Amino acid sequence: MEDVRLIAKGSITDLSKGFALKGGVPFSVYVRSKENTMLSDTLLDCRLIGDKGASPFPVPVGDWTPAMIAYISPNAIDLGKFDVYWGASEQPNKIV
């Protein structure tokens, strides 16, 4: 895997319609628990850049996932329990 630096970032505050970056720019996510927890990971329903469709994928809690995500499915993670941030190594024009 390449050594990649994030150059664009943001938070995901609504997943009712899913989430993707314009132009199919791949991104990573950082999942932060809103509660004290011993969870080391959680499942995120998403499509990676090499996938044909979305499916559950384990992502760490409290760290960036190395996955190159293309799309997060609607309501794929409980935003009442977790803060979710995205980071990309390309500058997206805007969020879809």
Describe this structure as you would to a colleague:
- The protein is mainly β and 96 residues long.
- It has strands at 8-12, 28-33, 41-48, 55-60, 69-72, 82-88.
- The strands form two sheets. Strands 1-6-2 form a three-stranded antiparallel beta sheet, with no helix packed on it. A three-stranded antiparallel beta sheet has the order 4-3-5, with no helix packed on it.
- Strand 3 (41-48) and strand 4 (55-60) form a beta hairpin.
Strand runs, count: 6
**What does the average pLDDT come to?**
90
Treating each run of at least 4 consecutive H or I residues as one helix, how many helices? 0
- Secondary-structure class: mainly beta
Strand content bin = 35-45%
Strand and helix map with partners:
Elements: E1 8-12, E2 28-33, E3 41-48, E4 55-60, E5 69-72, E6 82-88
Antiparallel strand pairs: 1-6, 2-6, 3-4, 3-5
Keywords for this structure?
single chain, 96 residues, mainly beta, three-stranded antiparallel beta sheet, 0% helix, globular
Task: State the gist of this model.
This protein is mainly β. The chain has no helices and six strands.
